Amino acid sequence: MSGLYVHIPFCVRKCGYCDFYSVKCGKDNHFIAVFMKNIVKEIILKSYLFENETIQTIYFGGGTPSILPFEMIETIFNTIRDNYKLSENLECTIEINPEHATEEYFSALKNSGFINRLSAGFQAMDDQGLKYLGRNHSVKDNYRYLNLCEKYGFDNFSVDYIFGYEILTEKEIEKSMKFFADKKIPHISAYSLGIEDNTIFYKKLLSGKIHKPDDEFFLRQFRLVHSLLESQGYNHYEISNYSLPEKHSRHNSNYWDFVPYLGFGPSAHSYYNNSRSWNSCRLPEYFQQIDEQKLFEENEVLTPTDIFNEKIMLGLRTSKGLNISALKSCFPLFFDSFIKKVKSREFVEYFELNSNYLKLNLDGIFISDYIISELFE
Predict the structure, then answer these.
(1) Which of 68, 98, 228, 363 is 20 to 30 Å apart from 332, CA to CA?
(2) β-pairing verdict for 269-272 and 10-11
(3) What is this structure's pTM?
(4) Which structural domains are found in the chain, ordered by start?
(5) 274: alpha, beta or left, given left = phi > 0 and alpha = psi -120 to 50?
(6) For position 27, what pLDDT does the model report?
């Protein structure tokens, strides 16, 4: 089995916290037509790589996929269908901005017959929070999205939520999580706000226009989100992801299980045959790459050390954790050093061992980036 990721790089405007590659434009921007020509060509160009694979998941991400007229999404899907073998049990997800949740758009989604999972970037459930985060929608748009999901029979969908920013109160988190649980939202991705270089928030932080809370603030909000969702039957199956039973993201779970995937579009990454590859990260260079029929801008064959480190990184992101017996069997040269670090005074308190699976506890999850990097070979 394998997956496909389609990166739609266009946005109406850049959110303050976002460091993904995107291009500001409207629906009539000339870049979109050129982009469509090239991504269709890329999908066909790479098809031979997966001629013996069955595609289990497709994910339209961005950027803002819902900024495209839906006929363009259909063109992309039809190109995939005509050039790849699709599973009868295909999971096909599209990201939607809440302001694009209209009767017309949902009707097109439903009538398409291939979109069966949705993901919406709510980020906040109060208009003050949305304004702070630089979002282009209101809470009313969030409500409309949920009503349309129900009306058009979409019972497999996700919403994103951001915590850990200075104006967000614990009372607001409690209100939002209760609302999500009462609505029985199938999947919730809850992210702690990170301020990355070259973002609008980073510039505001340097100028003193915003302030970054201390670690204790982040930890309290993380614990609150976790306890409220778990108490309502949500499974914390990955560091930032919670789902009701059988509603986890199959596409994202495949990343953590080393399932091969191809990425299409600028900055998109691929993984297959123990190698990672990626496209040019800007539209003009991406167009040139495809025009020259280059499959990827760069390609990296993973060494045994690389593979071990990725196993550690991806396995410890999940609630299941790492199979210790399998790790020892596959990586005998690195295993003893790894276990020594895990049992060290610095890290032992952050781990749990259940039925031969090693995983991070809640305190460990909060500082997982640091712990995982220290466990690398």
Answers:
(1) 363
(2) unpaired
(3) 0.94
(4) 2-255 (3.80.30.20), 303-377 (1.10.10.920)
(5) left
(6) 54
